[in-house]
Amino acid sequence: MQTVRSTAPAVAPATPAAPIEPAATTADPLTHYQIMRRNGAVVRFEPAKIAVAMMKAFLAVHGTQGAASASVRELVDELTQTVVRALMRSRPAGGTFHIEDVQDQVELALMRGSHHEVARAYVLYRERRAQERAQHKGAPAAATAAEVKRSIDVSIKAAVGPRWNGCRISGVDVDQLKTVVKFRLTQSGALAGFASVETSGQNDSNKFQVQRHQECAKRAIELAAPFDLPEENYSFWQNYTLDFIKR
User: Fold this and answer.
1) DSSP state of 69
2) Is residue 76 within 8 Å of residue 58, measured between CB atoms?
3) Cα(189)–Cα(187) distance, rounded to whole angstroms?
4) Cα–Cα distance measured from residue 85 to residue 98, given in angstroms and rounded to the nearest whole number
5) Does a structural domain hold residue 41?
6) Of 10, 162, 33, which Cα lies nearest the Cα of 87?
7) For 142, 161, 230, 233, which has the most beta carbons within 10 A of its beta carbon?
8) In a shared domain, residues 63 and 138
9) Are residues 108 and 43 in the same domain?
10) In a shared domain, residues 137 and 195
11) Per-residue confidence in pLDDT tens, the chain, 247 aa
12) For residue 243, how far is the Cα from the chain centroid?
């Protein structure tokens, strides 16, 4: 009898598995934003530069040792993120910010965070840089009207802010009230008088707090005076208006 020998089919060598591609990372949303410098050049948006500028302002106020603390570094990081979020909200689809717009947002973040002295230092830093640029171009180093007004704004708010924050007003919808005070100053910075005091945002819940709101606003100005302001720019601050809101 013939024997049939069966052979097992040859087993093909296993094909090495293809390397696993790393998952695509989420694109950095900041790549959609740019900064326009004063000379018209457009560069990428780098929040780290905002943090550096703010840290210089904190250094000017708190000194090297104070600004080097972990709490100040964390605060600068938080303020930087606040500025970045505000800028991105203004252009959700991406776009180009002028450098002045960015710096204005930094000032606003510092003021809203009640860092009034740091805000003033930041304004002075901006003015110094503007003068350096003017000197570099051979132009006179005189501050522009906008720079003078900005410096006066920060000085007055830095003096009034702590007094306003120290005046307690409680009740429902108090944060909806906005008191606008117009006042006059003498050339020495002393309070000459109030021109008007008006409050908006009243409703049935907060109407009984309006008088207290106005009293606190006026008292904050009275306690802050006299103001240390440049006499040569008296025309900028002789008549002044401040808005008061409790947040």
Assistant:
1) S
2) yes
3) 5
4) 16
5) yes
6) 33
7) 161
8) yes
9) yes
10) no
11) 444 444 444 444 555 554 544 444 456 778 889 998 877 788 899 999 999 888 888 888 877 666 567 888 889 999 999 999 999 998 888 889 888 888 888 988 888 888 888 888 888 777 777 777 766 665 444 556 777 888 888 889 888 988 998 899 988 999 999 999 999 999 889 999 999 999 999 999 999 999 999 999 999 999 999 998 888 888 889 999 999 998 7
12) 18
What end-to-end distance do the CA atoms of the chain give, in Å? 105
Side by side, the strands of the sheet bearing 42-44 are 42-44, 33-36, 95-98
CB 103 within 8 A of CB 81: no
In contact, 216 and 169? CB cutoff 8 Å: yes
Main-chain dihedrals φ then ψ at residue 165, nearest 5 degrees: -65, -25
Contact 177, 217 (CB under 8 A): no
Burial of 135 (0-12, 13-18, 19+ CB in 10 A): exposed
Q: What is the DSSP letter of 177?
A: -
Task: Put the strands of the sheet holding 239-244 in their side by side order.
Answer: 191-200, 178-185, 239-244
Residues 101 and 172 in one domain: no
With residue 35 as reference, give the H or E element that holds it: strand 33-36
Nearest by Cα to 236 from 150, 118, 136: 150
pTM of the full predicted structure?
A: 0.53
Contact 175, 245 (CB under 8 A): yes
Q: How many domains does the chain have?
A: 2
The Cα–Cα gap between 38 and 162 comes to 35
- Between strands 33-36 and 95-98, the pairing is parallel
Interatomic CA distance for residues 123 and 80, integer angstroms: 16
